Amino acid sequence: MKTIGRGAALATLAVILAASQSWSQGQAAEGYTFIRGLAGTEVCMGAWTPPAGGLPGKCDGQVLDLGQFMALSARTSTERLDQVLIVLSAMDQRLALGNEQLRQLTEVTLRAQAAMDQHVRQSNELLLDAIARRFDQVPAEVLADEQFKEVLERLKKDILAEVDKQFAKRPAVPAAPGKQ
C-alpha cells in the first residue's frame, strides 16, 4: 500500500509540475503577455521571461488578473477617446472659424467686384458719350461733303464699337453664399 501511495503521490506531483509549467508559459498579444496559472489567467504588463531550465517564468513588471486588466484597459481607452474628442472639438472650432472668415472674405470680394464692375460700366458710358459728343461737334462745313460725312459716321461707329468691345459688360456678379 505504501508503494501505491508513493506512486500516486509521485504521479500527482508530476502532473502538477507539468501542468504548472505549461500554464506558466505565456501567450503575447499587443505588448502584453497572458499567463495561465492556478488562479486563472493573468496579464504581465512588463517584459516576460518564459520558463527555462526548470525555473518558472518571470514577469518584469506588474501582474494583473484578467478582470483588473480589462478594467484598466477600458479606463485607458476612455481617456484616449476623451483626448481624441477634445482634439476633434478643437479642429471643429478652427474649421468653423476658418469657414466664417472664408465666407466674410468671399462676401467682401463679391462686393468689391460689383463696385469695380459698376465703375467700369460708368466709365464706359462716359467714354462712349464723350466720343459721340466730339463727333457731333464736327463743324457743319466739314459735314457738308456727303462722302466725308459718311466716312466720319463709319469711323464714329467703329470707335464706339471698339470701345464697347474693350470695356464689355461683365456677367452679373453671383450672390454671396448663403445670401440667395
Q: Mean pLDDT, nearest integer?
A: 80
Lateral strand order in the biggest sheet? 1-2-3-6
**Low-pLDDT runs:** 5-24
Elements, N to C (H/E): HEEEEEEHHH
Task: Describe the structure in your own words.
This protein has four helices and six strands, in the order H-E-E-E-E-E-E-H-H-H. It has 180 residues and is an alpha+beta fold. The strands form two sheets. It has a four-stranded antiparallel beta sheet with strand order 1-2-3-6. The chain is rod-shaped. Strand 2 (32-37) and strand 3 (40-44) form a beta hairpin. The model is unreliable at 5-24 (pLDDT under 50). The chain starts with a helix and ends in a 14-residue tail after the last helix. The protein has helices spanning 2-24, 66-136, 140-143, 146-166; strands at 27-29, 32-37, 40-44, 47-49, 58-60, 63-65. Helix 2 runs antiparallel to helix 4. The longest helix has 71 residues, at 66-136. It has two domains: 2-61, no CATH class; 74-166.
Main attributes?
rod-shaped, alpha+beta, 4-stranded antiparallel β-sheet, 2 domains, 180 residues, 6 strands, 66% helix, two-stranded antiparallel sheet
Task: Indicate the topology.
Blueprint: H1 2-24, E1 27-29, E2 32-37, E3 40-44, E4 47-49, E5 58-60, E6 63-65, H2 66-136, H3 140-143, H4 146-166
Antiparallel strand pairs: 1-2, 2-3, 3-6, 4-5
Helix pairs in contact: 2-4
Task: Provide a compact summary of the structure.
With 180 residues, this protein is an alpha+beta fold. 66% of the residues lie in helices and 13% in strands.
